[in-house]
Structure to design on (364 residues):
């Protein structure tokens, strides 16, 4: 039987003035709506206690397994307001299915797609005033579903009690500098994931393991780090929070193939599908880091961009490593292909272009 998320409304929601102030300049991941949705799973009772309740601190025992063994998965997707006031999400079923795959890898229970969608609908319905108005640029309501081992137990085994929640955060552009290309650092000392590990799952540990490489990049004046395969340190994987694409001089749109260590981004797979509409030949294959350096030098690589739900499509500029750099091909605001892919996605998401693939799902 599917879950019903009963609404327990908070008695002290943000005032209209405070909400308007936040929505005028939301930033990314800083402000949260009045409510959250949750459900609990017990080994013997399946999913239960589904509810929408006031956003606030969660109570966990210090022995909760997630705090020790990182048994946790999460998702990221957005709610977009269209001109007529309706609220939509982009391929949320794909996020539900990825969360199920991530859960299997982390030995967590799977939340059925219909319950995942019901949790989003219930929360967005309760907090619909927090979804930014249409036509305010790139603003949306970022939804962050997550699931963790809440059982108080220190033995190393899959938890018998698990909590699922969704929180919501009004969001502007992920990179406040807009389309200004990001500079990347090659993380040569730190890998993000390895064969047989959790790299393809959306789990906090992958993000934690990307931070040292990210920090190294920041210390070298870069915005983000690019991670290589852990076995040979020669092929390009991803940025930790975003996938990478290369536009070649002969009209191909190339991205690293999924090897089990790369996250299968919803934006990544949507771009691969959109490529043909834009006259590009999509290609998933191994890409050597030397190919990047060489391609930028000889002109066979025309544009490079990163993509993800939070940042949509972001131009990539210079590549740096210990002792060298490959120049940017991105100009001030990214190349033409980068910008047209970005526009095509945003136009579908905000209802400005026809949704010919049925990618939009109405939330409210
Ligand atoms: C997303 O793009 O939604 C991500 O998950 C990236 C990051 C904010 C963790």
């Amino acid at each position: 039987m599917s879950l019903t998320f009963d609404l327990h409304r908070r008695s002290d929601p943000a005032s209209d003035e405070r909400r308007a102030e936040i929505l005028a300049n939301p930033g990314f991941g800083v402000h949260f709506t009045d409510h959250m949705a949750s459900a609990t799973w017990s080994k013997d009772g399946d999913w239960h206690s589904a509810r929408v309740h006031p956003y606030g601190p969660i109570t966990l025992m210090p022995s909760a397994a997630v705090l020790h063994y990182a048994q946790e998965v999460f998702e990221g997707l957005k709610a977009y307001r269209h001109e007529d006031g309706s609220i939509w999400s982009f391929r949320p079923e794909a996020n539900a299915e990825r969360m199920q795959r991530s859960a299997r890898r982390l030995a967590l229970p799977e939340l059925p797609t219909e319950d995942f969608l019901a949790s989003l609908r219930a929360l967005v319905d309760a907090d619909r005033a927090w979804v930014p108005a249409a036509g305010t640029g790139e603003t949306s309501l970022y939804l962050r579903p997550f699931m963790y081992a809440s059982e108080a137990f220190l033995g190393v085994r899959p938890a018998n009690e698990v909590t699922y929640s969704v929180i919501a955060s009004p969001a502007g552009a992920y990179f406040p500098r807009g389309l200004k290309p990001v500079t990347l650092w090659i993380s040569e000392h730190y890998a993000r994931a390895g064969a047989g590990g959790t790299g393809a799952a959306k789990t906090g540990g992958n993000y934690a393991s990307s931070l040292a490489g990210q920090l190294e990049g920041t210390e070298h004046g870069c915005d983000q780090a690019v991670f290589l395969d852990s076995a040979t340190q020669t092929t390009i994987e991803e940025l930790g929070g975003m996938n990478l694409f290369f536009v070649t001089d002969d009209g191909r749109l190339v991205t690293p193939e999924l090897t089990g260590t790369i996250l299968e981004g919803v934006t990544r797979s949507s771009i691969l599908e959109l490529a043909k509409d834009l006259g590009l030949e999509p290609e998933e294959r191994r890409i050597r880091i030397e190919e990047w350096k060489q391609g930028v030098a000889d002109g066979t690589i025309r544009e490079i961009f990163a993509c993800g739900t939070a940042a949509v499509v972001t131009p990539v500029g210079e590549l740096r490593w210990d002792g060298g750099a490959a120049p940017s091909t991105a100009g001030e605001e990214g190349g033409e292909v980068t910008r047209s892919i970005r526009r095509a996605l945003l136009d579908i998401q905000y209802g400005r272009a026809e949704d010919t693939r049925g990618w939009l799902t109405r939330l409210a």
User: Anything to note?
Assistant: Residues 76, 241, 308-310 surround 2-OXO-4-methylpentanoic acid (CB under 6 Å). Residues 6-171 form a domain with the D-amino Acid Aminotransferase; Chain A, domain 1 fold (CATH 3.30.470.10). The chain has a mean pLDDT of 97. The CA atoms of residues 213 and 360 lie 35 Å apart.
